[in-house]
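Risk register update: the risk of archive-format incompatibility is retired. Evidence:
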Amino acid sequence: MTISIQPVSTSEQLNLCYQMQTAIFHHELNLLGMQIPDNYDRLSLYVQIIDSKVVVGTYRIVPNTSLGLPIEETGFNFNQIDQNKVCEMSRLVLVKEN
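Archived output:
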């Protein structure tokens, strides 16, 4: 087993990330209200988790921009934190082993 992490660089790779998110969040967890992609995606860096040349997972890194961060939609308050030093890692998904 060789695990590596690489940034998503093509639209095909990004579409695979969205497919994996949809499979987990919509179909397995029944979170049908979760928008995939959402407004944060255009500013986010997507990453693929690869095991022996097979993509087994993904996550995104969301920088703190004028949109804020997704976690703030839940009511989390960043008033005590330097806003210029914050980003969010979200939508981590890993596929099940067969």
